[in-house]
Amino acid sequence: MRALPARLLVVTDRHQAPTSIPDRVEMLLAAGIRWIWLRDRDLPAGERRALALDLAARAARHGATLTVGANVALAAEAGAGVHLGAGADLAAARRMVGPGALVGVSAHSLGEVQAARDGGADYATLSPIFATSSKPGYGPALGLAALRAEADLGLPVLALGGVTAAAARDCLDAGAAGVAVMGEAMRGDAAVRAALARI
To answer: Rounded to whole angstroms, what are the CA distances from 117 to 55, 95, 98, 111, 178?
Structure first.
């Protein structure tokens, strides 16, 4: 298990960003964000590959970490970490991305957090902590109580789902190792980015 690069993980979503993802990520990196998760899984493979390589170069210039969602081969090519769904073969992913890269898992229950820990993940996201339009299929919000319960599991967990700058501190106080933010980071102005960068 590796140390997390930051307590804030920004998740990309080009549908919410007012500018291109490279421009938005560049602004976030300039504001002090040091961990980016390239999601945007609906992009055609060639476009997503080009975007991953572009973001990897930008992250490297800023001393930041890039994580690529769902595609281990692309993460390895970009020299990035990888973020996978629950039940993925984490050992195989780690062999492909290399020993220095982060391997994370999306979890939607404490049982999935435990499985991620037992499978050798470096961290898990737990969602949805709060109600969110981007995670409608995963049931009701888990709430801060879920973060308190996971604190004893021995795996760093990032709160995901409806997390705003205002709610980030509550998540950390409840036991989260960090927060993962999509909407507010993609849509937010400079003040929001700066506030998120300080958590």
So the answer is: 28, 17, 18, 10, 16
Predicted model pTM: 0.94
Distance between terminal CA atoms of the chain?
Answer: 22
Give SS3 for 118: helix
Query: Would you state the structure tokens that stand for residue 169, as one six-digit string?
Result: 């501190």
Domain ranges of the chain: 8-197
Q: Which CATH superfamily is domain 8-197 in?
A: Aldolase class I (3.20.20.70)
CA distances from 197 to 77, 88, 99, 150, 188 (A): 28, 30, 27, 24, 12
48-81: per-residue pLDDT in tens?
999 999 999 999 999 999 999 999 999 999 999 9
Instruction: Mention every residue, 6+ apart, whose C-beta is less than 8 A from residue 39.
Output: 11, 12, 13, 69, 182
